[in-house]
Write a structure and sequence with these properties.
The protein is mainly beta. It contains one helix and 13 strands; from the N terminus they run H-E-E-E-E-E-E-E-E-E-E-E-E-E.
Length: 263
């Protein structure tokens, strides 16, 4: 079975030797209203970026990734523990923050209806583990619209930092994707992510981070009843304050099914 570290190595190799990368790399993931009670899943989200704006190049980061464990505590509640790490250009990999997250499904998306709407709520709290990072709280709705094989999910989250290195005000930290299911286990789509700092005194548009690009969503069967879920996306910066290109690879690996079968 391919390991999560193997996927990370493959992603890193893809853009090896890229000379210019983002000062603060992020991973990119759209939170979903998919909760199964009793299910345990490991996830590894990877990002590589290039084309850092010159004014943000003092602490260049090559690679950012998150490693987490998700647990379906109830049919409507998923809880997660996540460690967020990054690899600076001239330094060893370092752990940035440790986070606890939850997804509450207020209204699930029905598989029995051609058209349906789903609503949930996301909450995440991050604790700083490095002198250059800060604590933060992230929260907001998860909204999904489904029309047959087409779906749209949006995460309009608000973020507040606190403690050392915190920034003033509340930021908008959003993500969304629209995808079309080609067949079972394969979908294509478009994703977008962005950050607007301090909504009360937001910086000019050109200094904000906004990006968009194509994505592929897959399921790969490794054994009977064992499927991993790699998502691959290529995101392009829309403003001068955004790195030119970001390549993301997110992989979910089942560890335990509701019936108790391991991955």
């Amino acid at each position: 079975m391919p390991t999560r570290s193997g996927f990370a190595l493959a992603l890193a190799t893809t853009l090896a030797g890229v000379p210019e990368l983002a000062a603060h790399a992020h991973t990119f993931d759209v939170k979903q209203l998919e909760v199964t009670a009793g299910e345990v899943e490991a996830g590894l989200d990877n990002t590589l970026q290039r084309g850092v704006p010159h004014e943000r190049g003092s602490d260049i980061v090559r690679h950012a990734y998150e490693q987490g464990i998700d647990y379906g505590a109830l049919p409507w509640l998923k809880v997660s523990a996540v460690m967020k790490l990054e690899k600076p250009e001239q330094d060893e990999p370092r752990a940035n923050t440790l986070a606890v997250e939850s997804i509450v499904v207020l209204k699930p998306v029905s598989d029995q209806r051609t058209f349906d709407v789903g609503v949930g709520w996301f909450t995440g709290v991050e604790a700083s583990m490095h002198s250059k990072t800060t604590n933060s709280a992230l929260f907001g709705p998860i909204l999904t619209l489904k029309a047959d094989k087409l779906s749209f999910t949006a995460n309009p989250f608000l973020e507040r930092t606190f403690g050392r290195n915190h920034e003033e005000g509340i930021a908008l930290n959003y993500g969304w994707h629209a995808k079309y299911e080609l067949r079972d286990g394969l979908a294509i789509g478009i994703e977008g992510f962005g950050v607007v700092d301090n909504l009360g005194h937001a910086p000019p548009l050109e200094q904000q981070e906004h990006r968009i690009g194509p994505a592929v969503f897959t399921e790969l069967a490794l054994a009977r009843d064992v499927k991993i879920t790699p998502d691959l996306g290529l995101l392009f910066g829309l403003t001068r304050g955004t790195p030119d290109v970001a390549l993301k690879l997110n992989v979910g690996v089942p560890l335990r099914s509701p019936a108790g079968n391991g991955g």
